[in-house]
Amino acid sequence: MNPPRLVPITVQIPEEWVQNLKALLDPDHGLDDVAAVLAELADHAQQGVYRPGAWEREWLCRALGWDWLEGMEPDPEHPDIFERPRRRRGGR
Questions:
Q1: Domain membership of residue 36 as a residue range
Q2: Exposed site from 12, 33, 69, 88, fewest CB < 10 Å?
């Protein structure tokens, strides 16, 4: 099995946010720096996107509202448990 292809993303956030996020550092769990914390949060967010029954789904809807759910559809491989963003014409 091949590891997932990592895509670098650059974000800029206020220094105060960085200081607050440092409270979540936990080297024993691989959260060595704020970038690792943001990656962990992104992982939970993406789980909330594809797993409708996950606690992360409710978390995302509370944070971002419910409208994005309109763009979801059942995942054809596992329609009973997973969803995916609705595919646009042309497969994207």
A1: 32-92
A2: 12
The predicted structure's pLDDT at residue 1: 84
Cβ partners under 8 Å of residue 22, min gap 6: 34
Residues of the chain with confidence (pLDDT) below 70 = 89-92
Cα–Cα separations (whole angstroms), residue 13 to 2, 52, 75, 78: 32, 29, 33, 37
Taking the C-alpha atoms of residue 18 and residue 56, their distance in angstroms, rounded to an integer, is 22
Whether residue 6 lies inside any domain: the answer is: no
Residues in CB range of 48: below 8 A, 6 or more apart: 54, 55, 56, 57, 58, 59, 60
Model pLDDT, residue 91: 53
Q: Structurally, how many domains does the chain consist of?
A: 1
- 60 in a domain, yes or no? yes
Asked if residue 81 is part of any domain, the answer here is yes
